[in-house]
Amino acid sequence: MKETLLNVKHLTLGVTERDGSVNKAVDDISFEVRKGEILGIVGESGCGKSLTVMTLMGLMKDDVFVMDGQILFGQDDLVRVTPERRRQINGNDLSIIYQEPMTSLNPLIKIGRQVGEPLRLHRKDLSEKEIDRMVLELLTEVGIQNPGQIMKSYPHQLSGGMRQRVMIAMASICRPRILVADEPTTALDVTTQAHVLSLLKRVNEEFGTTILFISHDLGVINRVCDRVLIMYAGKIVERGKTRDILNHPAHQYTKGLIRSIPTRDQKGKDLICIPGRVPSTMDPREPCPFAPRCGHTMEACRQTFPECRELSKDHIVYCHMFD
Amino acid sequence: MDNTKPAGEDILRVEHVSNYYSDNGLGILRSRKRSQVLQDVSLTIGRDEFFGLVGESGCGKSTLGNAILGLIPYEGKITVAGLEYGKVSRKEFTRHIQAVFQDPLSAMNPRRTIGDTMKEPLMAHGIGTPEEQEAAVRAMLETVGLDASYADRYPRELSGGQRQRVCIGAALMLEPELIIADEAISALDVSVGSQILNLFRTIDVERDFSMLFISHNLNVVYYLCDRIAVMYKGSIVEMGTADAVYNDPMHPYTRLLLSAIPDYASEDDGDRALLERFRPPVEGSCAFYHRCPHATDKCKKVPELRNKAYRGEEEHLVRCFYL
Question: Across residues A188-204, what is the average pLDDT?
Fold first, then answer.
């Protein structure tokens, strides 16, 4: 059994709406991240996946707050760390790359200086020369062909794929225990995406970096993730090994997501869609938030959120159909 | 959308269209450069045909869409339903061609109700009495799967998918022969996007219209369209029936694209090397020369589009010396 690096326990996040009322955006979720794995979080807009990782990083917006729960990371509970401790952790033990690298990179500072910044902050024992050397080495490792020139360039001079490689370098340079990737390839061309996904796998295999990978794209999840959790409207509905989930989806939402993707043999036929739409935080909800769209709703679904059911080793589902 | 060859005149004829923009550079050393975006593009779309235009960023697919809509200048000839932009008034032109873009929210006036937005094309062309216009709006709302009460709502009250339905409805109000859909589902959740795909198919059965479906997603394009053109750096590199291009891809770039798409159903680890090989670019060569796994000295010139289909089969054009 692999060691647990991160333990999210009964995390509930509240969001303050425009009219002052408070609703739950993430509702009592629990999961573990195991050392060395790539864990995927899949869900559509409003499921809470981005809010969850933002809370992990301590980067929530003003209208989001933790109502309950813990995020245990080593000796720390990330929900309750002091700002000083948070500054020691971010960029160092825990780092993040986003969908849009242009907004993460400072447009006025050269690449070399930016990629070296985490080292300057967290490794006071290193000289400037050593830092520059490590930046050059890492830029080469992430597949940049002319690292010396890139170090002297500005972000706007790089393509989207190159910027994302730079981001990965910057997020990896302190060898974090966990790297969070929030939709890192969604804005990239499919051929560039393929390169960046390969790079992330290499970072995982060669540096041993554990990765938490957020995406809405099941194809991408299949390509990189060992395990995946499926979220819907603030809840985790299913969790397991990627191949298990994709081959034997248990939850109706997971099945619906898979059926929404056109495959080769579906040309000429209607796609089986999930009717309706994802509820917003302001919409009233049943205890199981998927009940209105499920098609197999039972009385129990309107009374309680389902218990966790273990279907096989490492495959769990939250659905009353398995009671 | 049946499989018989559409009879009658072409709804869209694009003939030898090129497009340039001035790229003067920034800073002290300004050079007067003209960059060519579209390189001598030609294609036709028949009646009641769905035509997919695929390519990655920078290939010119959106530029071509904008040229067809008469939104940007170009060299060459474009006729829609027999009418040439510039030879007829814009008003007349827009009775035959409409567009649906990627971001429905920015396409609608936030201060107008849905009903007013959808009525506007009718009012602009002086079609129908106010009662008839209201009735037409209600009928169209039903066609796009929205309740008639939505006519009184504002865009901000609708979800992304609902807004896109409104934009599709607004585009159909004048019963144009051609709709340009530019990344129409790319910004939507997967489950919502599949609803929109079904909507296009349903409307297509009820009405006679052609669509130029521009997308970077080859799977979706294969699913929805009758014919596909693949663009790379401003020119069409492959064009044929959806079946031919997707299941028997000939151009090395098309093959690269197909190999790069992550497949949620694939069992293997998928870490196959991408079908590309890099070499220093050569001026005046085939646009794909610098990445092509098969390039030879022959490829230092720009190839013509040649028909590689067997006799009696539908045209399958490929721009490549290798075949």
Answer: 92
| Three-state secondary-structure class, residue B272 | coil
Residue B269 identity (one-letter amino acid): D
What count of other Cβ atoms lies within 10 Å of the Cβ of residue A139?
25
Question: Does B265 sit within 8 Å of A271, measured CB to CB?
Answer: no
* Interchain CB contact of B276 with A (< 8 Å): yes
**Contact between chains at B56 and A189 (C-beta distance less than 8 A):** yes
pLDDT in tens, A55-99: 999 999 999 999 999 999 999 999 999 999 999 999 999 999 988
**pLDDT of amino acid A46:** 86
With an 8 Å Cβ cutoff, the interface of chain A facing chain B consists of 44-45, 160, 189-195, 197-198, 201, 216-223, 243, 246, 256-264, 266-267, 270-271, 273-274, 277-278, 280
Tell if the CB–CB gap between B261 and A271 is shorter than 8 Å: no
Q: Which residue blocks in chain B are alpha helix, DSSP H?
A: 61-68, 90-93, 104-107, 114-124, 130-143, 160-172, 190-206, 218-224, 242-247, 252-260
Could you please report the per-residue DSSP string of B20-61?
Answer: EEEE--SSSS---EEEEEEEEEEEEE-TT-EEEEE--TTSSH
Q: Which residues pair with A73 in a beta bridge?
A: A6, A76
Judge whether A95 and A34 are in contact, CB under 8 Å. Answer: no
Token digits of residue B91: 């008003």
Inspect the interface and report whether the beta carbons of B262 and A194 lie closer than 8 Å: yes
Whose tokens are 């796609």? That residue is A271
**Sites in chain B below the pLDDT cut of 50:** 1-7
Task: Tell me which chain B residue has its CA closest to the CA of residue A266.
Answer: B223
Look up residue B79 and give its DSSP letter. Answer: E
Question: Tokens in use for A6?
Answer: 């991160």
> Could you tell me if residue B175 is left (phi over 0), alpha (psi between -120 and 50 degrees) or otherwise beta?
left
Sorted by where each begins, the domain ranges of chain A are 4-93+176-322, 104-173
Phi-psi region of A210 (alpha: psi -120 to 50; beta: other; left: phi over 0): beta
- Which residue in A189, A191, A221 is closest to B274 by CB distance? A191
- Asked if residue A52 has pLDDT above 80, the reply is yes
**Chain B residue numbers touching A259 (CB-CB < 8 A):** 194
Chain-wide mean pLDDT for chain A? 93
The answer to whether A194 contacts B260, with C-beta atoms less than 8 Å apart, is: yes
Residue B85 per-residue DSSP state: B
Q: Which residues of B touch A191 (CB under 8 A)?
A: 56, 256-257, 260, 274, 276
Q: What is the pLDDT of residues A234-284, one digit of tens each?
A: 999 999 999 999 999 999 999 999 999 988 888 989 999 898 888 888 888
- CATH level 3 topology of A4-93+176-322: Rossmann fold (3.40.50)
Integer angstrom CA distances of residue A190 from A194, B105, B160, B195: 6, 26, 24, 23
Query: Which residue in chain A has the smallest CA separation from B1?
Result: A268
Q: What is the pLDDT of residue A103?
A: 80
- The side-by-side arrangement of strands in the sheet containing B75-80 is B33-45, B12-23, B75-80, B83-84
pTM: 0.88
B190/A261 CB distance under 8 A: yes
